[in-house]
Amino acid sequence: MLSELKTVFVDESGYTGGNLLDESQPFQSLSAVCITEDEAAELINKYFPTHQGKELKYIQLKKRETYWEPLLEIQKVLLNEYNGISYVVDKKYVQLYLLLDNCLEPYLHGIGDTDYYKDGQNFALASMLYCYAPTFWGRNEFDELLYYYQRAAVNKLDLNVNILVEHARSIVSKKQECFEFLVPLANRNDEVINSILMPEQKNDISFPLLIGLISRVEDDMDTNYIVNHDNTENMKNYRELLDVLIGIDDDFEIFHSVHNTMKYPLKINKVEECDSRNSKGVQLADILAGAIAESAKVLCCLKESNNYNEQIINLYGEHNLIYQIPRRDPEDFEEYKGSDGERAIEFFAGQVKKKNN
Question: Global pTM?
């Protein structure tokens, strides 16, 4: 019976659509918690007994110092007792990752080099450029490259692509360190330009976020379950992606990293939407998502720390937290040893094509 299935509530924080360079929201997070509505209501009544209003919203709760201790306590309970999981990403880093995905990989694939995604080389390259390209090329040149790429990728206009190409040429002409990664773009390689202009190529990070989160949820679930999320516009894109994932009925396994292996078909039985004002479970997922995004800002010195937010990260164990941030240590990429992104991309492309047909 569907009523007997466990429910995983999911919510997000920091979603800005195709604008991944929004300085006010540099991190995007997606969180999940496996709990019943009755259990969620009990927790809310226990930790926020004096709260007035129909809905708990993290953005409001964190403003009141009297709520800091209850916020830490309820997150601890959700993470330790209700399989709470959060995935947080640095959006500027992922914007660079997407730039390389569309401005370098298509060229490499065209000349027969299919190792770009193997063993996490794509993440390693994006991390290296994120950390050092501003020094090699100049901070303004680096930031403008990301901005021009984002605009071209979102608007799909030839004019914006031309501006991006000219900026890449300017960087390449100075022949500073690592300029060669921009040569295919500067030379207007056909595969590169077509990839940027392809309507299916969205400047959006919802899919990798969802894949990472659901893979961890799948590890925790020993039976079929329901995913329930808020019916906001921000969650609409996740819903569409979930529909693709649960529609996969092929037996297939994808190794993304030592922390992320997906086996299909998934155990998700169905996806439900709700008004968060009527769902205590979604409200608790909102607390996890909002808090981990705030914690990331504090850890990166983008937000002033206080007695509350500096403690959030300490609530998480290795299994509760997934993150995608630039890394300087080559050993950090050992977790991707054996991964094959090319195979995963081909698999998902085939599933989307099958669904559309």
Answer: 0.92
* Angle between helical axes of 139-155 and 91-103 (0-180°, round to 10): 70
pLDDT at 141 exceeding the cut of 60? yes
Residue count (the chain): 357
| CA distances in angstroms from 36 to 9, 82, 83, 245, 256, listed in the order given | 9, 10, 12, 24, 30
Sign of CA dihedral 201, 203, 204, 208: positive
Q: How many CB atoms lie within 10 A of CB 318?
A: 7
d(CA 28, CA 275): 21
CA dihedral over 32, 35, 38, 40, signed as positive or negative: negative
Q: How far is CA 333 from CA 22, 95, 214, 222, 336, in A?
A: 27, 19, 21, 29, 6
**Is the per-residue pLDDT at 3 higher than 70?**
no
Give the separation between CA 261 and CA 324, rounded to whole angstroms: 16
Spatial separation of the C-alpha atoms in residues 28 and 20, rounded to whole Å: 9
- Cβ proximity of 280 and 9 under 8 Å: no
User: Residue 51 and residue 73: Cα distance in Å, rounded?
Assistant: 16
21 CB burial (10 A radius; 0-12, 13-18, 19+):
middle
Q: In the chain, what is the straight-line distance between the N-terminal and C-terminal CA atoms, in Å? A: 31
State the Cα angle at 145 between 213 and 27, rounded to 5°: 30
* Biggest CA-to-CA distance, the chain: 65
Q: Tens of pLDDT along 156-198?
A: 999 999 999 999 999 999 999 999 999 999 999 999 999 999 9
**Among 105, 99, 161, residue whose Cα is nearest residue 130:** 99
Q: Which of 3-7, 114-118, 186-190, 207-211 has the highest mean pLDDT?
A: 186-190
Exposure b/e, 184-220, CB count within 10 A at least 16 = b: bbbeebebbbebbbeeeeebbbbbbbbbbbbbbbbbe
